[in-house]
Amino acid sequence: MDESARVPSVSPTRSSPPQHLSGDVPPPLQTVEDSIGPEVQSDVHNTDDADSAYDPTPGNVTETTSLASVITKYREENGRTYHAYGSTEHWGPNDARAQDQQDLSHHLWLVTLDNKLFLAPVENPQRILDLGCGTGIWAMDVAEQYPNAQVKGIELSPIQPTWTPPNAIFEIDDYNLDWLDENKFDLIHARELLGSCPDWVELYKKALKALKPGGWFDQAEPSLFFTSDHIDLPQEHCYTQWGRLMLDAGEKSGMTFNIGPYLKEWMEEAGFVNVTMRRVAWPIGKWAKNKSLQEIGFWNQQRLDAGIQDFCSRRFHNKLGVGTPPDGMISNS
Ligand SMILES: C[S@@+](CC[C@H](N)C(=O)[O-])C[C@H]1O[C@@H](n2cnc3c(N)ncnc32)[C@H](O)[C@@H]1O
What we know:
Blueprint: H1 3-6, E1 15-16, H2 62-71, E2 75-77, E3 80-82, H3 96-112, E4 127-131, H4 137-145, E5 150-155, E6 168-172, E7 185-191, H5 200-210, E8 211-220, H6 238-253, H7 263-270, E9 278-279, H8 291-320, H9 329-332
Parallel strand pairs: 1-9, 4-5, 4-7, 5-6, 7-8
Antiparallel strand pairs: 2-3
Helix pairs in contact: 3-8, 5-7, 6-8
């Protein structure tokens, strides 16, 4: 049996929006891609679905306790905290402010995708894996939507709540390490993992192996490179400059932020078939006439105003030696 027959259908499905710039300036576009693939395995700890590496119970084994202290020993940089565990350095903070950002972003995605959690044509999924699940908000929503499915979120930071739907679990794990699962998942989900993977083809190959035949990989990514379809965005505009710096910083970290244009070909190179991509424009602010775009624009602006530093603080300081833009840069530009 050839590979495409053995591992059917992958199709990236989710689209993510381009962002529009502020005010009545039309938007820069963000690109999102979804892909599908076979199943993923979760690596490092070789845990089964029932254990939680960061929730040691009293009297539990020393190894577990040690791991728990390692993963919560956050790094502090420029007033923010960052994950301690993992083989790669994620750009985003994990403090309360960053967690609020993630939850706000979840809402923005729901508004964008007509309240859908994913676009892949998965029916009656039994096992779902969420890569880099952050606060776990997507995983918990999907667990509630599919109460018969087992949902697992993996993450570098233990920032998920302890009250979760009974069919959702979280594990501290690093998707950039080896995966152990094979033929296991019906759906693997990834969202906003831009700048957090040194080799996407490699990651997709692991996901393909971890998916069941016929399983899907669904990915949604924003673009940080603002564009406009009706005005010229000058090179010296702060949005354009910020995008160039992000691009440079990402390249210097070895984990590019510029993934949108390549995700489809990387998925296909990894062996996925039936890959589709949808691009959507995200206005910045409520300037659009269309009601739905107005709502997207409102939430996008909120997210960027409060969150632009989250995207760039660590990379700007450590990779470029420059400071971060002020809060409100987006609205004030
Ligand atoms: C921008 S957040 C998005 C969170 C979540 N996917 C969402 O959309 O709400 C990216 C998350 O990926 C996690 N992450 C980055 N690299 C990772 C890795 N190698 N393994 C596991 N999680 C990772 C980060 O810790 C962070 O919480």
